[in-house]
Amino acid sequence: MSIKTSGLHHVTAIGGDPQRNADFYLRTLGLRLVKTTVNFDDPGTYHLYYGDQSGRPGTLMTFFPWKDAPSGRLGTGQATTTSFSVPESSIGWWKQHLGQAGVEASQVTNRDDEDVLTFRDPDGLQLALVAHPQGDPRDPWDTALVPAEHAVRGLHSVTLSVSREDATAGMLGDLGLDFAAQDGNRFRFTAGDGGPGALVDVLVTPDAPQGLVARGTVHHVAWRAPDEPTQASWRAELVDRGVNVTSILDRQYFRSIYFREPGGTLLEVATDEPGFAIDEPLLELGRALKLPPWLEPDREQIQAVLPRLDLPSENDMAGTDRA
After folding, report:
1. Which parts of the sequence belong to the VOC domain (predicted)?
2. Is residue 3 part of a domain?
3. Of the candidates 195, 194, 143, 179, the residue with the CA atom closest to the CA atom of residue 30
4. Are 28 and 101 in contact (CB under 8 A)?
5. For residue 50, what is the domain's CATH number?
6. Half-sphere exposure of residue 117, counting CA atoms within 13 Å on the CB side?
C-alpha cells in the first residue's frame, strides 16, 4: 500500500446566510477568511475558506453558504462533528467567550485525556473545541477578540457517523490511517504522526437515521496529498481497488479527487500545493472575490448574483495590531 495521508486538509460544510457565516467564523471563532471565491460547480454561491494566517492545510474549514438552503439532518453516512484544536489551558476561556457571544455550549467533558467543549454554529453545524494534552505547535491567527494564547490552532479531528464500522475502517486503512483506540462505540484512527489535525473518530450508531446533507451539515472531508504526482498515484491505486473515484479536478488552490467511503461520507484527497497566495498577497487574503480563469469572463454576472459580503476588521492583518 502506497497511500499514506499525513492528515486532514479541510472540511467543507453547507451554511446559510454568508454574512452571518463570516461574522461567526471570523469574530466568534477567530479564524481568518483566506479566500473569497465561488463554488466552481455552482458559481451562483460563495465558497468561503477559513483558516490560519496563510490557510495552511489542516487548518481549513470551508463553506458553501446558501441563504435559503433547507436544514439538513444529522445521522449516519456523514461527518457529524468537526473539532478544532485549542490550547489545553484555554477551554475555560472559550466557555466564557462563547457564552458572551450568545453561543450555547456544553459542559466541558474529558475523552481520551482531552478536554472537549461542544456547540453549534448559527446554522446548527455541530462543532467542538478540543485541548490535546501534548499541545499543538501550529501558530494561530491572532485577533483582538480571540488572542493568540487562546486561539484555534487548526482542525483537530472529524467524527464520521456510521451504522457499522468495519467497511469504513477498511477504507481509512486504505488511506494510510491506523487504528488507535476504542471507547465504547467510538473508534479512533490516526494519520501520519497522529495528534491534532490527523485524527478521525468513527462513531457507530446503528439505530440513528440516515443523515441528510444540507444547511448545517458537512458536505465532505478532505485528506492531504503532498503534490499532484502523489495524488495521481493514489488515485490509480484506489481505482485498482474498485473505488469509484472522480477525475482529478482543478480547484485553483489545490487539486482534488472525490469518492465515498462505504459508510456514505463523501471524502476528498486534496494537494497541499499550490496554496492560497497564488492570486493575491498574503496581507490581502480573502478581501476580494477571486475567480478561476475559466470563470473570469463571467465576473460581472456572478457578482450580480452574489449577496454583499462585508468583512470585519479581524480579517485584516493590520486590524490585528493591538499595540
Report:
1. 7-132, 154-272
2. no
3. 143
4. yes
5. 3.10.180.10
6. 23
